[in-house]
Design brief:
There is one protein chain. The chain starts with a strand and ends in a 5-residue tail after the last helix. Helix content is 47%, strand content 14%. The protein is globular, with a radius of gyration of 18 Å. The strands form two sheets. It has an eight-stranded parallel β-barrel with strand order 1-4-5-6-7-8-9-10, surrounded by six helices. Strands 2-3 form a two-stranded antiparallel sheet. It has one domain: TIM Barrel (Alpha-Beta Barrel), CATH 3.20.20.70. Helix 1 runs parallel beside helix 9.
């Protein structure tokens, strides 16, 4: 259902407002590059600093721009269950194909609280739901027993974006989940090893800049063309690494300012990169042959 490459879209800003012209250009570049779907207003889309109206409008715009050519997975998670329900229902009304729901951050619910949080959201929508486990940002992991329980009890919870940094965790998930429950990499640099042990694709930051090469890497890995997949992984690895030299999405927004002419602006408390890291990103784009 969600195999392949999904781009965790940045939200372009200009003069402090969402730049919908740039957003449209970005989505067209993704479709032209062969991605399978787009994910507006995830962490890469700076969801914490978008207003509720902006959050809803950006997802709606993504659906309208994509016009059914790729799947749109709305980032609708929150550490408030009711807010996540509201955002998910809005995404459903806007025509999104699915929702990406991150683990509640900061308030650190118990395992039972995590289960009840996701179950309540699943009951409130008909959309397929992709869980999102990223302990480095949320302070908690969606544990194996909880993922397995949700997969069993909630038919519309169908996948997980796994960003815990562990290939072993993917193997563990594959052991306890139904065969049709999909695992997506949440770390570009681990996409190839994750696929080798049971993942079916990636929700990617790097594909904002390199939709074609990332899509080709995933296709090659899934089709068993391992030599080509390894070649692309080696070519892209510096990009995978250096797009996280500062907090995401600051580096990828700077990269897009070079490759597509977008403003690199981010919203406070994020700030634009200093000259040293800007040079690193420029050099990385040149090294990976993505920018002169």
């Amino acid at each position: 259902m969600f195999a392949g490459t999904y781009t965790a879209l940045v939200t372009p800003f200009r003069d402090g407002q969402v730049d919908y012209d740039a957003f449209s250009q970005l989505i067209e570049a993704q479709i032209g590059g062969g991605v399978d779907g787009i994910v507006p207003v995830g962490t890469t889309g700076e969801s914490p600093t978008l207003s509720h109206d902006e959050h809803r409008d950006v997802i709606k715009a993504a659906v309208e721009i994509a016009t059914g050519r790729v799947k749109v997975v709305g980032g609708t998670g929150s550490n408030s269950t009711q807010e996540a329900i509201d955002l998910t229902q809005d995404a459903e009304k806007a025509g999104a194909h699915a929702a990406l729901i991150v683990a509640p951050y900061y308030n650190k619910p118990s395992p039972e609280g995590l289960y009840q949080h996701f179950r309540a959201i699943a009951k409130a929508t008909k959309l397929p739901i992709i869980l999102y486990s990223i302990p480095s940002r949320c302070g908690i992991e969606i544990g194996l027993p909880i993922v397995a329980r949700l997969a069993k009890d909630c038919p519309n919870i169908v996948a997980i974006k796994e960003a815990g940094g562990s290939v072993e965790r993917v193997s563990q998930l594959r052991q306890v989940l139904p065969a049709n429950f999909e695992i997506l990499s949440g770390d570009d640099s681990l996409t190839l090893p994750f696929i080798s042990v049971g993942a079916v694709g990636v929700i990617s930051v790097a594909s904002n800049v390199a939709p074609g090469p990332v899509s080709e890497l995933v296709r090659a890995a899934r089709e068993g063309h391992i030599a080509r997949a390894e070649e692309l992984h080696r070519q892209l690895y510096p990009l995978f690494k250096n797009l996280f030299v500062e907090s995401n999405p600051t580096p990828v927004k700077y990269a897009l300012s070079l490759t597509m002419g977008f403003s690199p602006s981010v919203r406070l408390p994020l700030v634009e990169m200093g000259e040293e890291n800007q040079k690193l990103v420029r050099d990385t784009l040149a090294q990976t042959r993505l920018f002169p």
